[in-house]
Amino acid sequence: FFDLTMAKVVVATFLLVALALGLVLGWHHGEVPRQSFMMVTTRSVAGPQAIGTTQRARFVRYYDAASPSFTSNSAAQQSRASVLPRMHATSESDIGDTSKEIIICGAGIIGASIAYYLTLKGFKPTVVERKEVAAAAGGKGGGFLAGGWGYGVTEQLHTKSFELHEELARELDLKSYRKIPTISVCAGSRPNPSKVCSWLDGNIATSRLMDPNTAQVTPKEYTTALMNAAIEKGAKLVIGKVEGMETVEGTDGARKVRAVVVDGEEMPADKVVIAMGPWSVFATDWLDLPVPMQGIWSTSVVYNHAGAQRSNEQPTAMFCEEDGNGCHLEVYPRPNGEVYLCGIGGSKYMDPAQLKELAPEDIVPDPKRVAAAHRSFSNMTTVGRDVDGPGLAQACMRPCLTDALPMMGQVPDTDNAYIACGHNCWGILWAPISGLAMAELIADGECTSVDLYPFRPERFGRLKARPGARGRAQGTAEVGEQW
């Protein structure tokens, strides 16, 4: 019995050692079959959510058939390149060559940010804009900044861009930037002034501090200041409509953009950047790049009467629960005495085909939602009761990709084309880090500020996209406008 038992122990030990050795060798040489999963955090939205409710992050898993082997962390970066379409890097002679003609399509907040950071590297890009600087969402957004609200792959964008905003506010002398707290609010049906905000003096059921470490900037001022600073450093602004791109054969069968067609005329280009917000869907026609964009047509309003100045007694950003008017207001008092409202509800969704038929000037506000917002705001504060309605009603098209992540990087199978779009409701916050990251990639051949891999343009060519979130989230807790 003893001998038999010892024999079993010896055999078992031998097998365990052999198995361990095989795993070590397999790990090192990449010979152990496996399923590779990419963990992508998205915020699953089933409908408007009460502020403060916690929703678990949804993890999307993708099978990586092109790389069926374990890789160690040290080899992970190398394995990424093997499963992606060919990325034809700019030749070494182009790296750092500031004489190269770079054309940026779009003078919104992303395009202006890229232009600014390129000029800091000595380049003099040409920015082509259809109408004017900050004509669309880059000039009509709320400008809410929350550095601690990121989660998963977007955490780096929130944290680093929040810091860059403060730096840029000093460098560009922005008057609209300031640190403010954020509160959550639930409107009521009887007079009950808020105890956390002096001018929230209407029918308030509950109000509480949500985040003391947030900030704001007025997007129009920010975008315009960036563009002006870039122009002072040698960038050029051309007003015209980008109608297409002329391509020729480049390296190893890749396509190379030779020129950008603007109002029927060709503008020669060494490098091209598409930063056209929701209209970046044209990259599908021009460069065969899948861009599963959904445009979210949303109304916003601004109160700019004398009574709105009271909001500066205690400037506080507010996220409000959904009310009987179908609103879940986001309220942003601004340093100039204006009060900006979004989260008005009733947003419309545009698919790529519809987006291509619309121009920025076609995006107009919905009068019914303007009236609903006024009813909701007037119920919460006397600031809204002093007038018959807001002084300004406007609308913009928010660019949202189907996985709720931005698209940033070099267009696959091209030598010299790049894209940055799909920043959803965080476009204002993420603009500085997006501009810096893209400038690094374009000028230096690689990005060192953040990891752009989760946002790579080619992910929709190989991965099955899942519907993602359309509103804000504080970490995994959904807040603000969802529809």
UniProtKB/TrEMBL annotation:
Positions of the FAD dependent oxidoreductase domain: 102-441
Record Pfam families: DAO
Superkingdom assignment: Eukaryota
Stretch forming the signal peptide: none
Transmembrane stretches, start-end: none
Entry's Gene Ontology cellular component terms: cytoplasm
Name of the protein in question: FAD dependent oxidoreductase domain-containing protein
Species this protein is from: Eutreptiella gymnastica
